[in-house]
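Hi C.,

You asked whether I'd gotten around to modeling the 179-residue construct. I have! Everything is below, sequence then structure, no commentary in between.
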Amino acid sequence: MAKEILEPRWLLLYLPVYLFAIWDSYRTTVDMNKVFILAERENANYNSYSIGGLEINYLDKRRPVMAIIWSFFTPGLGQLYIHRVITAIFIMAFMIIFVYFSNVLIAVHYLFLGEIKQATEVLNPQWFLFIPSHIGFAVYDAYINTVENNKLFESEQRKFLQKNYQQYRIKISASNEVK
């Protein structure tokens, strides 16, 4: 059945782009890992606060479970929870497109009315089947980025405390006298 609907002109356009995306993702990951190792060895500082035209970003500790819950509730909210506004906009926009073209809201309406046959007829499976993978991506992305941001936050806090407070040594006397 896949051969019947396969359009070779589109396949030949998508295949090189797909292969390039895989190769470029791998290459960029290797390069970024090298930069991370160098920065870690140099004990480089982090920019823990930035204000831009589209968002305000700051390092803080977030709960990965909350990112998962918000992403399950509505894909994109987990990204908003961790201040990734542009990613959240794209994820929400695609979710709206998938829900609209799959007619899932109309199907849910018919389910509430008890008309199961009409609900299944109105559902467009080609668009509906995008939704589970899109939710899975949103949950995964929100969770992974929350965990990584938490690691960055802990590293930044460790460096801050070492720089500002570790040079002070408190001497505690051996006796338990209160003076």
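If it helps when you're writing up: The mean pLDDT is 85.

Thanks,
B.
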